[in-house]
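Sequence dictates fold. Next comes a concrete instance:
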Amino acid sequence: MTAVFVTGESLKGQDVKWIDTRFSLQDSPQGRTDYEAGHMSGAIHWDLEEDLSDMTKPSGRHPLPDKKDLKELFRRSGLMLDDHIIVYDNGGSPFAARAWWILQYAGFNNASICLDGYEALVGAGFPADQAIPQPNRTDVEPKWQEDIFASKDFVKETVNGQTGYTMLDARSAPRYRGEIEPIDPVAGHIPGALNFDWEQLKQNGIFNLQSDVKDQLTGVVKADRPIIAYCGSGVTATPLYAMLKQNGYEDVRLYVGSYSDWITTETVDKEVK
């Protein structure tokens, strides 16, 4: 099995395809600006809102693009299913994990998230430049992995006790409890969901692969439980999804629409279940 997370050090001397996913939720163009100012040599750029979301859809704040649009993204990016792909951002951000999950969903079986952000990779001696690559277009055919995707209907069935899955909310505890809600119009969480703040996955600004994270995760939900990870918009739940997979949780799905999609038609539970 390909590692979920890798260090820059482990990549030295390897031939990889880089994907730069740097982004700022506060300043949408910033990621592209940073990419154009310098990136790993040969890296393409995937933008959270332009490439990894379809912002025209009503299903949450960062809806998943249609499969045909994702296939076109992969093809113009010059990717094949067996390519050794390394996705990076600034380190400790959720954007590389979002791209990585989409690659997993599409059946790319040799993709990993780099623990090190761009500056750390440059500091470690990896070549960087400002050249914008023009990949050779491919005819790749994704092999969609529906068993890692949770539709809204599947989540409804889960809430109704029909699937055996446990919902795991990646937002902060106060937002989960409905005490504060800075973004969405309704506070609370999906009924029955447990909570694990994705920020707890980090140590010194990067994702923590030490055993204490696994201990914290299993303290909330055991590794043999099937899980659906979600957050506010389907972005910060992806590091939680990735870390669950890193720590041996076999049956994990992502609710991409997440809470911002759920509240469009549902009455939410404002009490911790």
